[in-house]
Backbone:
Protein backbone atom coordinates (compact mmCIF):
# COMPACT_ATOMS: atom_id res chain seq x y z
CA UNK A 1 0.00 0.00 0.00
CA UNK A 2 2.84 2.32 0.89
CA UNK A 3 4.31 1.74 -2.55
CA UNK A 4 0.95 2.28 -4.20
CA UNK A 5 0.68 5.73 -2.62
CA UNK A 6 4.23 6.58 -3.63
CA UNK A 7 3.69 5.39 -7.17
CA UNK A 8 0.48 7.39 -7.48
CA UNK A 9 1.97 10.65 -6.25
CA UNK A 10 5.13 10.13 -8.28
CA UNK A 11 3.00 10.43 -11.37
CA UNK A 12 1.70 13.81 -10.29
CA UNK A 13 3.93 16.73 -11.14
CA UNK A 14 3.47 20.41 -11.89
CA UNK A 15 2.64 21.04 -15.53
CA UNK A 16 5.22 23.02 -17.50
CA UNK A 17 2.57 25.59 -18.42
CA UNK A 18 1.68 26.04 -14.76
CA UNK A 19 5.31 26.60 -13.83
CA UNK A 20 5.82 29.05 -16.69
CA UNK A 21 2.68 30.99 -15.80
CA UNK A 22 3.82 31.22 -12.20
CA UNK A 23 7.31 32.33 -13.22
CA UNK A 24 5.86 35.02 -15.48
CA UNK A 25 3.54 36.20 -12.71
CA UNK A 26 6.38 36.40 -10.18
CA UNK A 27 8.69 38.17 -12.65
CA UNK A 28 6.00 40.75 -13.30
CA UNK A 29 5.53 41.32 -9.59
CA UNK A 30 9.25 41.60 -8.98
CA UNK A 31 9.54 44.21 -11.72
CA UNK A 32 6.91 46.22 -9.92
CA UNK A 33 8.71 45.73 -6.64
CA UNK A 34 8.85 49.36 -5.68
CA UNK A 35 5.12 49.55 -6.02
CA UNK A 36 4.15 46.43 -4.14
CA UNK A 37 6.93 45.64 -1.74
CA UNK A 38 5.45 44.84 1.65
CA UNK A 39 7.93 47.09 3.35
CA UNK A 40 6.52 49.96 1.33
CA UNK A 41 2.95 48.87 1.84
CA UNK A 42 3.28 48.14 5.50
CA UNK A 43 5.52 50.97 6.61
CA UNK A 44 6.51 53.71 4.23
CA UNK A 45 3.21 54.28 2.43
CA UNK A 46 1.07 54.55 5.62
CA UNK A 47 3.71 56.71 7.29
CA UNK A 48 3.90 58.97 4.25
CA UNK A 49 0.11 59.15 4.07
CA UNK A 50 -0.03 60.16 7.75
CA UNK A 51 2.76 62.66 7.18
CA UNK A 52 0.99 64.23 4.22
CA UNK A 53 -2.26 64.30 6.18
CA UNK A 54 -0.59 65.97 9.16
CA UNK A 55 1.30 68.38 6.93
CA UNK A 56 -1.86 69.35 5.11
CA UNK A 57 -3.66 69.78 8.41
CA UNK A 58 -0.83 71.80 9.88
CA UNK A 59 -0.49 73.96 6.78
CA UNK A 60 -4.26 74.45 6.63
CA UNK A 61 -4.29 75.39 10.31
CA UNK A 62 -1.42 77.84 9.80
CA UNK A 63 -3.05 79.41 6.78
CA UNK A 64 -6.45 79.68 8.42
CA UNK A 65 -5.19 81.15 11.65
CA UNK A 66 -2.72 83.58 10.12
CA UNK A 67 -3.78 87.20 10.15
CA UNK A 68 -3.91 88.64 6.65
CA UNK A 69 -5.58 91.97 7.26
CA UNK A 70 -6.97 94.23 9.93
CA UNK A 71 -10.15 96.25 9.98
CA UNK A 72 -9.94 99.04 12.49
CA UNK A 73 -13.28 100.42 13.66
CA UNK A 74 -13.32 103.61 15.69
CA UNK A 75 -16.16 105.79 16.82
CA UNK A 76 -15.76 105.81 20.51
CA UNK A 77 -15.48 102.10 20.91
CA UNK A 78 -12.08 101.53 19.36
CA UNK A 79 -11.28 98.02 18.23
CA UNK A 80 -9.79 96.01 15.40
CA UNK A 81 -10.94 92.88 13.64
CA UNK A 82 -8.12 90.52 12.72
CA UNK A 83 -9.04 88.84 9.43
CA UNK A 84 -7.54 85.76 7.79
CA UNK A 85 -6.96 85.09 4.08
CA UNK A 86 -10.45 83.69 3.75
CA UNK A 87 -12.02 86.86 5.08
CA UNK A 88 -12.98 85.34 8.42
CA UNK A 89 -12.70 87.20 11.71
CA UNK A 90 -10.02 85.51 13.80
CA UNK A 91 -10.09 87.78 16.82
CA UNK A 92 -11.00 91.23 18.07
CA UNK A 93 -8.48 93.55 19.72
CA UNK A 94 -10.04 96.39 21.67
CA UNK A 95 -8.25 99.65 22.49
CA UNK A 96 -10.56 101.25 25.05
CA UNK A 97 -13.16 100.21 27.59
CA UNK A 98 -16.07 100.77 25.23
CA UNK A 99 -14.26 98.70 22.65
CA UNK A 100 -13.70 95.86 25.14
CA UNK A 101 -17.33 95.94 26.19
CA UNK A 102 -18.51 95.80 22.60
CA UNK A 103 -16.00 93.10 21.64
CA UNK A 104 -17.23 90.93 24.52
CA UNK A 105 -20.85 91.34 23.56
CA UNK A 106 -20.35 90.49 19.86
CA UNK A 107 -20.25 86.91 18.69
CA UNK A 108 -18.43 87.44 15.41
CA UNK A 109 -15.45 85.10 15.59
CA UNK A 110 -14.96 83.04 12.40
CA UNK A 111 -17.69 85.07 10.76
CA UNK A 112 -17.17 86.61 7.35
CA UNK A 113 -15.94 90.18 7.86
CA UNK A 114 -18.83 91.69 5.90
CA UNK A 115 -21.34 89.84 8.09
CA UNK A 116 -19.34 90.82 11.16
CA UNK A 117 -19.46 94.45 10.05
CA UNK A 118 -23.23 94.24 9.58
CA UNK A 119 -23.55 92.91 13.09
CA UNK A 120 -21.34 95.64 14.50
CA UNK A 121 -23.31 98.38 12.74
CA UNK A 122 -26.54 96.85 13.97
CA UNK A 123 -25.30 97.00 17.55
CA UNK A 124 -27.30 99.40 19.69
CA UNK A 125 -24.30 101.30 21.02
CA UNK A 126 -22.85 101.90 17.55
CA UNK A 127 -26.27 102.91 16.21
CA UNK A 128 -26.62 105.33 19.13
CA UNK A 129 -23.23 106.91 18.40
CA UNK A 130 -24.08 107.30 14.73
CA UNK A 131 -27.44 108.85 15.53
CA UNK A 132 -25.61 111.38 17.71
CA UNK A 133 -23.53 112.30 14.66
CA UNK A 134 -20.36 110.76 16.04
CA UNK A 135 -17.77 109.99 13.38
CA UNK A 136 -17.22 106.33 12.48
CA UNK A 137 -13.83 105.58 10.97
CA UNK A 138 -13.10 102.28 9.28
CA UNK A 139 -9.46 101.64 8.39
CA UNK A 140 -8.39 98.59 6.39
CA UNK A 141 -4.86 97.27 6.72
CA UNK A 142 -4.05 94.68 4.06
CA UNK A 143 -1.01 92.82 2.78
CA UNK A 144 -1.05 95.04 -0.27
CA UNK A 145 -2.78 98.18 -1.37
CA UNK A 146 -4.82 96.19 -3.89
CA UNK A 147 -6.07 93.74 -1.27
CA UNK A 148 -6.87 96.56 1.11
CA UNK A 149 -8.88 98.33 -1.55
CA UNK A 150 -10.76 95.16 -2.40
CA UNK A 151 -11.74 94.69 1.24
CA UNK A 152 -12.70 98.34 1.45
CA UNK A 153 -14.93 98.01 -1.60
CA UNK A 154 -16.71 95.09 0.04
CA UNK A 155 -17.11 97.07 3.23
CA UNK A 156 -18.53 100.07 1.40
CA UNK A 157 -21.44 97.97 0.24
CA UNK A 158 -22.31 97.13 3.81
CA UNK A 159 -22.01 100.47 5.56
CA UNK A 160 -25.11 102.62 5.80
CA UNK A 161 -25.71 105.63 3.64
CA UNK A 162 -24.69 108.07 6.34
CA UNK A 163 -22.60 111.15 6.17
CA UNK A 164 -20.57 110.50 9.29
CA UNK A 165 -18.70 107.39 8.18
CA UNK A 166 -15.16 107.62 6.90
CA UNK A 167 -13.17 104.79 5.32
CA UNK A 168 -9.58 104.50 4.27
CA UNK A 169 -6.76 102.02 3.81
CA UNK A 170 -3.51 101.73 5.66
CA UNK A 171 -0.52 99.42 5.90
CA UNK A 172 1.06 97.12 8.44
CA UNK A 173 3.93 99.49 9.14
CA UNK A 174 1.51 102.13 10.34
CA UNK A 175 -0.50 99.46 12.16
CA UNK A 176 2.62 98.42 14.09
CA UNK A 177 3.30 102.00 15.10
CA UNK A 178 -0.31 102.43 16.18
CA UNK A 179 -0.24 99.27 18.27
CA UNK A 180 3.05 100.31 19.89
CA UNK A 181 1.33 103.53 20.85
CA UNK A 182 -1.61 101.58 22.27
CA UNK A 183 -4.05 102.89 19.65
CA UNK A 184 -6.04 101.35 16.88
CA UNK A 185 -4.98 102.19 13.33
CA UNK A 186 -7.92 104.54 12.76
CA UNK A 187 -7.36 106.50 15.92
CA UNK A 188 -3.60 106.62 15.37
CA UNK A 189 -4.11 108.23 11.98
CA UNK A 190 -6.49 110.74 13.49
CA UNK A 191 -3.84 111.46 16.12
CA UNK A 192 -1.22 112.04 13.41
CA UNK A 193 -3.54 114.51 11.69
CA UNK A 194 -4.15 116.31 14.95
CA UNK A 195 -0.43 116.38 15.67
CA UNK A 196 0.13 118.23 12.40
CA UNK A 197 -2.12 120.98 13.68
CA UNK A 198 -1.01 120.83 17.27
CA UNK A 199 2.49 119.34 17.71
CA UNK A 200 2.15 119.40 21.48
CA UNK A 201 -0.67 116.88 21.55
CA UNK A 202 0.25 113.47 22.98
CA UNK A 203 -1.19 110.01 22.53
CA UNK A 204 -2.59 110.08 26.06
CA UNK A 205 -4.51 113.22 25.15
CA UNK A 206 -6.41 111.46 22.34
CA UNK A 207 -6.89 108.05 23.94
CA UNK A 208 -10.09 109.03 25.72
CA UNK A 209 -11.53 111.09 22.87
CA UNK A 210 -14.12 110.04 20.33
CA UNK A 211 -13.25 110.29 16.67
CA UNK A 212 -15.53 113.28 16.31
CA UNK A 213 -13.76 115.07 19.17
CA UNK A 214 -10.37 114.43 17.54
CA UNK A 215 -11.73 115.70 14.25
CA UNK A 216 -13.02 118.84 15.93
CA UNK A 217 -9.64 119.42 17.55
CA UNK A 218 -7.97 118.94 14.21
CA UNK A 219 -10.24 121.67 12.97
CA UNK A 220 -10.68 120.31 9.52
CA UNK A 221 -14.01 120.82 8.02
CA UNK A 222 -15.39 118.16 5.77
CA UNK A 223 -17.98 120.21 4.11
CA UNK A 224 -16.18 120.75 0.85
CA UNK A 225 -15.11 118.18 -1.69
CA UNK A 226 -11.74 119.88 -2.15
CA UNK A 227 -10.91 119.51 1.50
CA UNK A 228 -12.80 116.46 2.46
CA UNK A 229 -13.90 115.39 5.90
CA UNK A 230 -11.23 114.47 8.34
CA UNK A 231 -8.39 114.82 5.92
CA UNK A 232 -7.24 111.24 6.33
CA UNK A 233 -6.79 110.79 2.63
CA UNK A 234 -4.32 113.54 2.26
CA UNK A 235 -1.37 111.32 3.09
CA UNK A 236 0.08 110.18 -0.21
CA UNK A 237 1.87 107.31 1.47
CA UNK A 238 -1.33 105.77 2.64
CA UNK A 239 -3.17 105.37 -0.58
CA UNK A 240 -6.18 106.47 1.36
CA UNK A 241 -9.69 105.84 0.19
CA UNK A 242 -12.60 107.91 1.27
CA UNK A 243 -16.06 106.50 1.21
CA UNK A 244 -18.07 108.92 3.27
CA UNK A 245 -16.94 112.09 4.82
CA UNK A 246 -17.96 113.97 7.86
CA UNK A 247 -20.74 116.50 7.79
CA UNK A 248 -18.66 119.12 9.45
CA UNK A 249 -18.38 120.39 12.94
CA UNK A 250 -21.35 120.73 15.13
CA UNK B 1 17.21 67.53 4.12
CA UNK B 2 20.97 67.20 4.53
CA UNK B 3 23.26 64.67 2.88
CA UNK B 4 23.26 62.34 5.90
CA UNK B 5 19.46 62.14 5.94
CA UNK B 6 19.35 61.53 2.21
CA UNK B 7 21.90 58.73 2.59
CA UNK B 8 19.84 57.20 5.42
CA UNK B 9 16.74 57.32 3.21
CA UNK B 10 18.55 55.61 0.36
CA UNK B 11 19.96 52.98 2.70
CA UNK B 12 16.46 52.22 4.02
CA UNK B 13 15.18 51.91 0.45
CA UNK B 14 18.05 49.58 -0.46
CA UNK B 15 17.37 47.51 2.63
CA UNK B 16 13.71 47.25 1.66
CA UNK B 17 14.71 46.01 -1.80
CA UNK B 18 17.18 43.55 -0.33
CA UNK B 19 14.39 42.01 1.75
CA UNK B 20 12.72 40.83 -1.43
CA UNK B 21 13.92 37.66 -3.12
CA UNK B 22 15.23 37.81 -6.68
CA UNK B 23 13.61 36.38 -9.78
CA UNK B 24 16.37 33.74 -9.92
CA UNK B 25 15.59 32.60 -6.39
CA UNK B 26 11.90 32.48 -7.24
CA UNK B 27 12.54 30.40 -10.37
CA UNK B 28 14.77 28.04 -8.44
CA UNK B 29 12.05 27.58 -5.79
CA UNK B 30 9.40 27.01 -8.49
CA UNK B 31 11.52 24.29 -10.09
CA UNK B 32 12.30 22.72 -6.76
CA UNK B 33 8.94 22.78 -5.01
CA UNK B 34 6.27 23.04 -7.71
CA UNK B 35 5.72 19.27 -7.88
CA UNK B 36 5.14 19.11 -4.14
CA UNK B 37 2.85 22.14 -4.24
CA UNK B 38 0.98 20.54 -7.16
CA UNK B 39 0.46 17.29 -5.23
CA UNK B 40 -0.85 19.17 -2.19
CA UNK B 41 -3.19 21.07 -4.51
CA UNK B 42 -4.28 17.83 -6.11
CA UNK B 43 -5.44 16.32 -2.82
CA UNK B 44 -7.34 19.47 -1.79
CA UNK B 45 -8.57 21.31 -4.86
CA UNK B 46 -10.88 20.36 -7.63
CA UNK B 47 -9.97 22.68 -10.50
CA UNK B 48 -6.98 24.02 -12.34
CA UNK B 49 -7.78 27.69 -11.76
CA UNK B 50 -7.60 27.20 -8.01
CA UNK B 51 -4.26 25.45 -8.44
CA UNK B 52 -3.00 28.42 -10.45
CA UNK B 53 -4.14 30.75 -7.66
CA UNK B 54 -2.36 28.67 -5.07
CA UNK B 55 0.85 28.60 -7.09
CA UNK B 56 0.82 32.36 -7.45
CA UNK B 57 -0.04 32.90 -3.80
CA UNK B 58 2.61 30.52 -2.48
CA UNK B 59 5.49 31.67 -4.66
CA UNK B 60 4.63 35.35 -4.30
CA UNK B 61 4.62 34.86 -0.55
CA UNK B 62 8.04 33.27 -0.88
CA UNK B 63 9.37 36.24 -2.87
CA UNK B 64 7.99 38.73 -0.39
CA UNK B 65 8.91 36.77 2.71
CA UNK B 66 11.87 37.94 4.74
CA UNK B 67 12.24 34.54 6.44
CA UNK B 68 15.83 33.34 6.42
CA UNK B 69 15.86 29.57 5.95
CA UNK B 70 18.36 27.69 8.05
CA UNK B 71 18.36 24.68 5.76
CA UNK B 72 16.69 23.18 2.75
CA UNK B 73 14.50 21.10 5.07
CA UNK B 74 13.38 24.30 6.76
CA UNK B 75 12.54 25.84 3.40
CA UNK B 76 10.64 22.74 2.29
CA UNK B 77 8.64 22.67 5.53
CA UNK B 78 7.81 26.36 4.99
CA UNK B 79 6.45 25.61 1.51
CA UNK B 80 4.34 22.73 2.83
CA UNK B 81 2.84 24.87 5.58
CA UNK B 82 2.19 27.85 3.30
CA UNK B 83 0.61 25.66 0.60
CA UNK B 84 -1.70 23.88 3.05
CA UNK B 85 -2.74 27.19 4.60
CA UNK B 86 -3.33 28.74 1.17
CA UNK B 87 -5.54 25.79 0.18
CA UNK B 88 -7.46 26.09 3.47
CA UNK B 89 -7.96 29.81 2.93
CA UNK B 90 -9.17 29.29 -0.61
CA UNK B 91 -11.63 26.60 0.44
CA UNK B 92 -12.87 28.74 3.32
CA UNK B 93 -13.59 31.65 1.00
CA UNK B 94 -17.30 32.41 1.04
CA UNK B 95 -17.66 32.86 -2.71
CA UNK B 96 -15.35 30.04 -3.64
CA UNK B 97 -17.40 27.48 -1.74
CA UNK B 98 -20.49 28.46 -3.72
CA UNK B 99 -19.15 29.45 -7.10
CA UNK B 100 -17.22 26.35 -8.23
CA UNK B 101 -19.41 24.85 -10.91
CA UNK B 102 -19.69 21.15 -11.47
CA UNK B 103 -18.25 21.42 -14.99
CA UNK B 104 -15.16 23.09 -13.60
CA UNK B 105 -14.20 20.02 -11.62
CA UNK B 106 -10.81 19.03 -12.87
CA UNK B 107 -10.40 15.99 -15.00
CA UNK B 108 -7.25 14.26 -13.82
CA UNK B 109 -4.61 15.54 -16.28
CA UNK B 110 -2.18 12.69 -15.64
CA UNK B 111 -1.89 9.25 -17.12
CA UNK B 112 -2.75 7.16 -14.12
CA UNK B 113 -3.44 3.47 -13.96
CA UNK B 114 -6.72 2.28 -12.54
CA UNK B 115 -4.92 1.45 -9.29
CA UNK B 116 -3.32 4.90 -9.12
CA UNK B 117 -6.74 6.49 -9.66
CA UNK B 118 -8.23 4.38 -6.89
CA UNK B 119 -5.44 5.40 -4.51
CA UNK B 120 -5.80 9.08 -5.41
CA UNK B 121 -9.58 8.97 -4.98
CA UNK B 122 -9.18 7.18 -1.67
CA UNK B 123 -6.79 9.87 -0.39
CA UNK B 124 -9.03 12.65 -1.72
CA UNK B 125 -12.00 11.12 0.07
CA UNK B 126 -10.30 11.40 3.46
CA UNK B 127 -11.08 14.37 5.74
CA UNK B 128 -8.79 17.27 4.75
CA UNK B 129 -6.57 17.11 7.83
CA UNK B 130 -5.97 13.38 7.23
CA UNK B 131 -5.01 13.98 3.59
CA UNK B 132 -2.08 16.21 4.52
CA UNK B 133 -0.83 13.79 7.11
CA UNK B 134 -1.10 10.78 4.76
CA UNK B 135 0.72 12.67 2.01
CA UNK B 136 3.47 13.93 4.32
CA UNK B 137 3.98 10.61 6.01
CA UNK B 138 3.58 8.10 3.17
CA UNK B 139 4.96 10.15 0.29
CA UNK B 140 7.33 12.74 1.75
CA UNK B 141 8.48 10.36 4.47
CA UNK B 142 8.07 12.66 7.44
CA UNK B 143 7.70 11.11 10.89
CA UNK B 144 4.78 11.96 13.16
CA UNK B 145 6.85 14.39 15.32
CA UNK B 146 8.10 16.14 12.16
CA UNK B 147 4.57 16.43 10.79
CA UNK B 148 3.42 17.75 14.17
CA UNK B 149 6.11 20.41 13.99
CA UNK B 150 5.29 21.38 10.39
CA UNK B 151 1.54 21.57 10.94
CA UNK B 152 1.77 22.96 14.47
CA UNK B 153 -0.14 20.05 15.95
CA UNK B 154 0.36 17.75 18.88
CA UNK B 155 2.31 14.58 18.01
CA UNK B 156 -0.37 12.37 19.57
CA UNK B 157 -2.95 14.01 17.33
CA UNK B 158 -0.81 13.11 14.32
CA UNK B 159 -0.54 9.51 15.50
CA UNK B 160 -4.30 9.34 15.97
CA UNK B 161 -4.92 10.82 12.53
CA UNK B 162 -2.48 8.37 10.96
CA UNK B 163 -4.19 5.41 12.62
CA UNK B 164 -7.62 6.57 11.49
CA UNK B 165 -6.38 7.33 7.96
CA UNK B 166 -4.88 3.88 7.69
CA UNK B 167 -8.15 2.35 8.75
CA UNK B 168 -10.12 4.40 6.22
CA UNK B 169 -7.70 3.65 3.37
CA UNK B 170 -7.70 -0.02 4.23
CA UNK B 171 -11.46 -0.02 4.01
CA UNK B 172 -11.34 1.60 0.58
CA UNK B 173 -8.30 -0.04 -0.93
CA UNK B 174 -7.95 -3.28 1.03
CA UNK B 175 -4.71 -4.72 2.30
CA UNK B 176 -2.41 -3.18 4.89
CA UNK B 177 -1.17 0.29 4.13
CA UNK B 178 2.19 -0.33 5.77
CA UNK B 179 2.87 -3.48 3.84
Residues:
Amino acid sequence: MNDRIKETFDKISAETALKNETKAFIAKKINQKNAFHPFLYQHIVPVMACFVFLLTGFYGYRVYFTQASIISIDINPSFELNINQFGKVLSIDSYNDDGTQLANSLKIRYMDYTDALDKILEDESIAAYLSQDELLTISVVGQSEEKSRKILENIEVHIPEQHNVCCHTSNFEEADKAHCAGLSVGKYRAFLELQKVNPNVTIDDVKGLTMRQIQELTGISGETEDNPSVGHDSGENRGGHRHRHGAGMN
Amino acid sequence: MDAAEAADGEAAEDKARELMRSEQEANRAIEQYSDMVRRLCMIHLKNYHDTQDIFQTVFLKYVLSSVVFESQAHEKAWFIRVTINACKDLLKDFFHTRIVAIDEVEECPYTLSQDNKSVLEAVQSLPPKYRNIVYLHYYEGYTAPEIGKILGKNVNTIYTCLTRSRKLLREKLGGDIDE
